[in-house]
Write a structure and sequence with these properties.
Two copies of one chain form a homodimer. The first copy, chain A, is of the alpha/beta class and 359 residues long. The first copy, chain A, has eleven helices and 15 strands. Chain A has two domains: 3-141 and 318-347, Alpha-Beta Complex (Quinone Oxidoreductase, Chain A, domain 1), CATH 3.90.180; 157-293, Rossmann fold (3-Layer(aba) Sandwich). In chain A, the strands form three sheets. In chain A, strands 3, 4, 5, 6, 7, 14 and 15 form a seven-stranded mixed beta sheet that branches. A six-stranded parallel beta sheet of chain A has the order 10-9-8-11-12-13, sandwiched between helices. The longest helix of chain A has 13 residues, at 145-157. Chain A is globular. The A-B interface holds A 72-74, 157, 240, 253, 259-260, 262, 265, 271-275, 277-291, 294 and B 72-74, 157, 240, 253, 259-260, 262, 265, 271-275, 277-291, 294.
């Protein structure tokens, strides 16, 4: 069954809480059979709680791991039958919490459902959306965990330096499109983006890459040698696997590697083994990992800075929005097929009319 | 042919320059057939040069890579027929260099031979031995490149913190025995050494390890969990392979890994692949490599500090000395068999009588 047929079977509607649940553990990329659609009455908020109506849901590779019960987020693993975890943007439509009146926009761990009751405690990692002048969809992207991933990974974990030769894989993806622009802000001398296909390569060059490598049609090791003759100073890794291997072979002295994601590895049958990690030795290199939720304490600094960059045009948020809650499973699949450009998200309901619309 | 029979065939003697050369590229651990013994007239120093008489030669795993022509030191690869590269301690026995009178002791890239002429230029990476109160053999160990590896790896690359739970593999080896004692100096809370065999484990506990894991008879992953219930803060890696994998599985937040050596990987037929390097992500971990020759500019700081520690008894140099230049190939083999305790070196000639002997 293809995704279109599958999505077409269902229709979310107001007045009922539609949900996507884990039907079975995925093997390889997700398939329609891995998802179950359920409908429940809208939950009723208790004192202190609010009822949220989902506007946008973001998609991220970690969600496949939630479905497999293999994520390393530290939260309890999900079981077959659970509503799939995920973050998004929602509007308060009923409030028993004086701090959050009806109409307020929030972002947080809504899950794959069209309504949710929340007590808005810190454990639920909800945040109020404080940028009414910007599209709310951004809270499921540049002003959400995707943005914080790029910000914390690049600026905090990565220690970028002016004049760096910076290479970014998954450069056309949700985090990659932001890191490309952050490298420009940080004063990289040369920015090389790696992406799949000529269209994506053109796109990332428009976005700020000096050079682009199409890993589907070019030899990445060969092109890295040509484009970075003095070696790579900074590599932001969104993909792992052979591309990480190729970058390790071509490092400059004191190179830094940031491990953000390894999407090329997630759906393999046999785990990928990195054979040349010892290349860090000859160049005094560092490979550092980070996890976005370890950086939540910098939320206000991050959102303030990111919103300023967006307003100043220094960061153009790139979003790949699918329409309709029915399309969530198909949207997740797109990530592993490398189809998305920018942050993959799903519009569950249109944005409400606001004082001033983003132009 | 065993090593004893092989070594017994040859006899170094004064008045002739005896050499060990590459007879063929080693496959797996080195074998007698990989080495060729040659004899040449003693070379004659020109103006500005000195003639050196070899006293000690150090052994290091990189020498097998020299023999294979696969080292990443940046120097030209060695060919079959070349005198094998290596560092050691020598005495000036003839001088056409007014700065280096006869009797002076130096350390440097002598190669596997009993005499050498040197211009003592920086390119040859020779240093004068400035610690006449300490055994000269130490210049082929704690006060040589082994010591600088431990010092640069642990203190410069590794950023140790007081209170760290520190794990050291190859803890009974040349670098490991020093790092164990450096971890004590740096104020580690718990020091866990990993070594092969009960005897080595006892030895490293005497040297300063709070706990020891015998990788030959115990499950390293299991023991690490038991001994480091809050995770590893600092892992000094001398071995790579499965032990690095096990440490990655058991990291504490903000853990640091220093990549010094990967002796468990060098002689494998299929290269080792590190499947869980992404564990660095959840803990904001860092894996950093270093190469000892990148730190030569700190030579004086290092030798001054190390000599002070040795004199104060804070670092007890551990040396595993084989007798006779004939035994060099066998001594190299010991490294890959895990037989050495401390720095493996070879006494080519006895130390000269000095003003004050080390007690």
């Amino acid at each position: 069954m293809n995704w279109e047929t599958f999505s077409g079977r269902y229709k979310a509607r107001d007045g009922i809480n539609c949900q996507w649940r884990i039907a079975r553990r995925p093997v390889g990329n997700v398939r329609p059979e891995d998802f179950e659609w359920t409908e429940e009455p809208i939950p009723v908020p208790k004192d202190g709680e609010v009822l949220l109506e989902t506007m946008y849901l973001g998609l991220a590779p970690v969600m496949r791991m939630y479905m497999m019960g293999t994520d390393r987020t530290g939260d309890e693993h999900q079981r077959v039958g659970d509503v799939i975890r995920g973050r998004g943007v929602a509007r308060v439509i009923e409030s028993k919490n004086p701090d959050l009146p009806v109409g307020e926009i929030v972002q947080g761990a809504i899950g794959w459902q069209t309504y949710r009751v929340s007590s808005m405690t810190p454990a639920e990692k909800f945040f109020r959306v404080t940028t009414p002048d910007l599209p709310y969809s951004l809270a499921a992207g540049a002003l959400g965990m995707n943005g914080l991933s790029a910000f914390a990974g690049f600026f905090i974990c990565g220690e970028p330096k002016r004049g760096d030769v910076t290479v970014i894989s998954g450069a056309a993806g949700g985090v990659g499109t932001m890191v490309v622009q952050m490298a420009r802000i940080a004063g990289s001398r040369t920015i090389v983006g790696i992406a799949g296909g000529a269209e994506k390569c053109r796109f990332i060059k428009d976005l700020g890459c000096d050079e682009a490598i199409d890993y589907k049609s070019e030899s990445v090791p060969q092109r890295l040698k040509e484009l970075c003759p003095e070696g790579i100073d900074f590599y932001f890794d969104n993909v792992g696997g052979e591309i990480l291997t190729a970058c390790l072979e071509n490092l400059a002295m004191n190179a830094r590697i940031v491990l953000c994601g390894s999407i090329s590895e997630y759906t393999r049958e046999t785990p990928f083994g990195l054979t040349n990690y010892t290349r860090l030795r000859a160049v005094e290199g560092k490979m550092a990992g980070f996890f976005v939720y370890n950086h939540l304490h910098r939320w206000e600094e991050f959102t303030g800075q990111m919103a300023d960059w967006i307003r100043a045009g220094k960061i153009k948020p790139v979003q790949d929005i699918v329409e309709g809650f029915e399309s969530m499973p198909a949207a997740l699949s797109r990530l592993f097929e490398g189809k998305n450009v920018g942050v993959q998200c799903c519009r569950v309901r249109p944005e409400p009319v606001r004082r001033k619309l983003f132009d």
